[in-house]
Automatic annotation (TrEMBL):
Signal peptide: none annotated. Keywords: Methyltransferase, Transferase. InterPro entries: Lys/N-term_MeTrsfase_sf, Methyltransf_11, SAM-dependent_MTases_sf. PANTHER family: METHYLTRANSFERASE DOMAIN-CONTAINING PROTEIN, SAM-DEPENDENT METHYLTRANSFERASE SUPERFAMILY PROTEIN. Belongs to the methyltransferase superfamily. Coiled coil: none annotated. This is Methyltransferase type 11 domain-containing protein. GO terms for molecular function: S-adenosylmethionine-dependent methyltransferase activity. SUPFAM superfamilies: S-adenosyl-L-methionine-dependent methyltransferases. It comes from the Eukaryota. It comes from Trichoderma asperellum (strain ATCC 204424 / CBS 433.97 / NBRC 101777). GO terms for biological process: methylation. Residues 49-131 form the Methyltransferase type domain.
Length: 203
């Protein structure tokens, strides 16, 4: 039976014991790929949205670079707890935001009211892969939510195991490959397998 990555119950059970895990790439390697994008942002004012934060320590890497206005979202409440724990372990306090929300029904409001919060960068590490287990329409719903939360000129960076993750009709983004990262081989004769880092700009 396939793992039900699109079901909240799976993540609740997993995060009840898991304290730290990185999907596809470690945070340091992921940050090295997106560094050219980050250099165009001002750490003191840029707003970053990390969707499907899980038990990753990616938020800590943003904070090390001076980005504090980082919102980490996951639809399992235990993920928010894990994120706060990881930040506090690294820095002694918690300054970033942690929210419980479904990436396919995302509506983050500004503190001042119901207006949709806009971000200068949106990232996910394989969250889109988990959501794709629920079908193509779920990916389109996530894409629509991401687009709604992008500030003018902002982009979405998505890490996936799939070479065709965004080959979807009606996708409201132009897609380019930012990086194609080979996975380790056990033997030299093993087939080439890659992880794909996509840069998506709204149409």
């Amino acid at each position: 039976m396939p793992v039900p990555f699109d079901k909240q119950a799976y993540w609740h059970d997993r995060f009840s014991t898991e304290t730290s895990f990185e999907w596809l790439l470690g945070s340091a390697e992921f940050m090295s790929i997106i560094k050219p994008i980050l250099t165009s942002l001002e750490p003191s004012s840029a707003r970053i949205l990390h969707i499907g934060s899980g038990t990753s320590d990616l938020q800590n890497y943003f904070r090390h670079l001076g980005f504090l206005d980082v919102t980490n979202v996951d639809y399992e409440p235990l993920a928010a707890d894990r994120g706060r724990q990881l930040e506090k372990q690294a820095f002694g306090n918690v300054k970033m935001k942690y929210a419980v929300a479904d990436a396919t029904q995302l509506h983050l409001s500004n503190d001042s009211g119901g207006e949709c919060c806009k971000f200068d960068l949106v990232v996910d590490k394989s969250t889109v892969d988990a959501i794709s287990c629920g079908g193509e329409d779920q990916v389109l719903q996530m894409a629509s939510c991401v687009k709604e939360h992008l500030a003018p000129g902002a982009v979405w960076i998505s890490l996936s195991y799939s070479a065709s993750r965004f080959d979807i009709e009606r996708l409201p983004f132009d897609v380019q490959v930012l990086a194609k990262v080979p996975t380790p081989k056990s033997k030299a004769t093993d087939p080439d397998i890659f992880h794909w880092c996509y840069l998506l700009r709204p149409k």
